[in-house]
Amino acid sequence: MRRALGSPRSRATSHPVSRSAPSRTYPLALLGLLLTLVARVAVGTPLTGEEARFSYAAGYQLGEALISDGLEVVDPEEVGSGLAAVVRGAPIRLTPEALGAAMRTRGEGTAAQRLDFSYAVGVQRGQQLVQQEVGSIDAEAIGRGVADALGHRPAQIAPGEMMVVVAARKERLAAERAAVARANAEAGAAFLAANRDKEGVEHRRSGLQYEVIAEGKGNKPDKDATVVVRYRGSHLDGTEFDSSERHGGPATLALSQVIAGWQEALVRMRPGDRWRLFIPPELAYGSAGQPPVIGPNETLIFEIELISVR
Q: pTM of the entire structure?
């Protein structure tokens, strides 16, 4: 399957199983809501405490990034609306085609076009932000930071201190992620060790384990083939994180674009075969995971049915 949420190297965002790598919090989901208040944010309360100072710094840096990208003409409220829609998983008011057209205007044109451009910028930034894990965010402070940057006002935190605050947060989050990675690796190793000796489970030297659920017939695909499959991906606790049904039915995937565990299994399957795969992290998403759905060093379970080979 591709590296998406449910397919190895899945389609960039449609199938979690693609090789592109998903903790599971979305603190920056607040950003869209905050930005809707940007035009009204004033001096606000003092920036005391790590959370408020980090949030202000993050907001200010986002505003600076928008300006450096040549987007300082954006309407803050529309940016916030687009961001909020993405991070909440709410419907996007513009079609993909309209979003692309809006971005191509670069904020020029009619008032309506400028609003659509601002909204599209928010959607774009939101899609980037949902892949990040930055810890807790102070809503008022991050909104103030964005407002100050877009308003070309001096930062309320010295640039040097801003860098220190952001670096400290990153260091703490990295340590927390490392702890999660260790725990996932240990849990996966224990699971595979116990699973290896179960009746019907085959194991390969690579570490891949599989169980044949149903047998088909026909020619096996080669490593360069394109296949049509049904699949379901789950964590060790059985929670589903992706499936072909979520995307409207069987998925068509190039074997060169799926995670290693899928590649190794699919070239041994025939049309009609249905296998359950137990894939260690080194054959899936490794230490990077695929945030926010797949954590670092996660062992994953996939049920795959090979429908046809193209």
A: 0.68
Structure confidence by residue, pLDDT tens digits, 213-230: 999 999 999 999 999 999
> 33 versus 190: which is more confidently predicted?
190
Who wins on pLDDT, 20 or 134? 134
100-156 tens-digit pLDDT: 999 999 888 898 998 999 888 878 876 776 667 776 767 667 767 777 887 888 999
Domain-wise residue ranges, the chain: 27-173, 201-309
May I ask the CATH class of domain 201-309? alpha beta
Q: Dig out the tokens for 62 from the structure.
A: 């986002």
- Per-residue DSSP letters for the chain? -BBSSSSBT-STTT-TTBS-------GGGHHHHHHTTGGG--S-S---SHHHHHHHHHHHHHHHHHHHTT-TT--HHHHHHHHHHHHHTPPPSS-HHHHHHHHHTTT-SSHHHHHHHHHHHHHHHHHHHTT-------HHHHHHHHHHHHTTPPPSS-HHHHHHHHHHHHHHHHHHHHHHHHHHHHHHHHHHHHHTTSTTEEE-TTS-EEEEEE---SPPP-TT-EEEEEEEEE-TTS-EEEEGGGGTSPEEEEGGGB-HHHHHHHTT--TT-EEEEEE-GGGTTTTT-BTTTB-TT--EEEEEEEEEE-
Distance CA 220, CA 310 (A): 11
Residues 28, 87 contacting (CB under 8 angstroms): yes
